Amino acid sequence: MTYPVASPVAVTGMGVACGLGYGKAAFAKGLFETPNVFGVLRREGREQPEDETPFIGVELPDEPETLPPRLARTTTFPARVALRVLEEAWADAGLEEVDPERIGLVVGGTNLMAREQALAASRYADRLAYVPPRHGHMFLDTDIAGLCAANFPIRGFTLTVGAASASGAVAVIEAMRAIRCGDIDICIALGALQDLSAYDLHAMRSLGAMGSERFADDPGRACRPMDADHDGFLYGEACAALVLTRENFATPGKIYGHLLGAGHVADGSRGPEPDTQGQQRAAELALDEADLTAADIDYVNGHATSTPAGDEAELETYRALGLTHARINATKSIIGHGLSAAGAIEIAAVLAQIAEGRLHPTRNLETPLDPGFGWVGPEAVPHRIRHALKFSFGFGGIDTALVIAAPEDGEGRKS
After folding, report:
1. Which of 243, 233, 83 is nearest to 165 (CA)?
2. How many C-beta neighbours within 10 Å does residue 49 have?
3. Beta strand pairing status for 103-108 and 186-191?
4. Distance of alpha carbon 415 from alpha carbon 23, whole angstroms
5. Each residue's pLDDT tens digit, 276-301
6. Average confidence (pLDDT) over 395-405
7. Are 58 and 236 in contact (CB under 8 A)?
8. What are the C-alpha distances in Å from 280 to residues 150, 172, 249, 275, 400?
9. Of 45, 60, 85, 215, which has the highest C-beta tally within 10 A?
10. CA nearest 352: which of 370, 329, 371?
């Protein structure tokens, strides 16, 4: 059976891990208290020569030892974190009694295990005969999907999608579409942790996308989305799982919100060049599918990476859409840029703010690029979100937008 293309899809479960801690409770608490979790990156494989400026970003706290030792030894760091967040989302949505063949999984992300793969290549470079057989599959992106299905009764389908920093958002969009086509009733969208190596970090810095040499001695001030003193994104380890449910399919989980519409377009660029026209087109498609206009949007969660070119182009998109009336903040200012996971964990941030009835601060927003917008500054503000617009963009000309509604505003309307 197929369902209406624009039928609302409910979010009934969440699992989160980031620099604020493991679990959605730690995530929600940290969003509003905004502790400084930025510092020098120290995970093995991200070492920086002593004569060079260290890499700044956010790393997860030490992992809780919850997996059986044999499983922990044969899985990568992103895979172990994925199991943790999926366990939380699964229990949160109450999926124990759902037919496994009616559950699907979409994992967002590519090149997820670069750091550990680089370490393995170095360790076995002069003794290839001793490469562990498990290395034949454990560094593939599909290993996370397979591991999740092996540990949870997911038998509808699994797949991975790559859309650079929009991967988490595209995973959500593909999960929405899978539910709407009627083949499954539940689909889990997982924005996977993208584990960067020192090589990746150097490349991002050389590209001019990643900061921040300017604030090397003061990491807490380095991530500055939409601020005049921005100079590049700051990497942040993150992972999030969202349980999407067909609206009329009852599960024990609460409804955090509804996904009303989505836009996913190509703007024709190859690298990191942002494109306002593509971003605007994605938003207009999402609004049209939601049967809303930009005037109905009262909150925007920006992609807002802190790169000068990216922030300026996104700001122009806000102007073109006429969003000066909406409140706007940037989750990356608190947890860094999760790359593949960014879209998913920032949707979780929208839902957390809906539940709280207030908007989280934007750290380091001292001199907004355009003071004519409704920026949320250093303090949380009360705000009842009815209809939110969430942007996520990725290298390679990938532009996405999602319209998210509070549970009581899930039907959509035209002004």
Report:
1. 233
2. 8
3. parallel
4. 38
5. 999 999 999 999 999 999 999 999 99
6. 98
7. yes
8. 40, 19, 33, 9, 9
9. 85
10. 329
Residue 32, both tokens: 């509003």
| Contact present, 384 and 246 (Cβ < 8 Å) | no
Q: What is the pLDDT of residues 296-336, one digit of tens each?
A: 999 999 999 999 999 999 999 999 999 999 999 999 999 99
Helix ranges, 195-293 (H) = 198-207, 276-290
pLDDT at 399: 98
- Phi/psi class of residue 31: alpha, beta or left (left: φ > 0; alpha: ψ in -120 to 50)? alpha
In which band, very low, low, confident or very high, does the pLDDT at 413 lie, cut at 50, 70 and 90? very low
Burial class of residue 306, CB neighbours in 10 A (0-12, 13-18, 19+): buried
333 prior amide bond cis, ω within 30: no
What's the first-to-final CA gap in the chain, in angstroms? Answer: 32
Give dist(CA 305, CA 236) in Å, integer. 11
Q: Which H/E stretch holds residue 39?
A: strand 39-40
Determine contact, residues 95/252, Cβ cutoff 8 Å.
no
pLDDT digits (tens, 9 = 90+) for 21-76: 999 999 999 999 999 999 999 999 998 877 788 899 999 998 877 788 888 889 99
Q: What is the mean pLDDT of residues 186-195?
A: 98
344 within 8 A of 316, measured Cβ to Cβ: no
Residue 89 and residue 243 in contact, taking contact as beta carbons nearer than 8 Å: yes
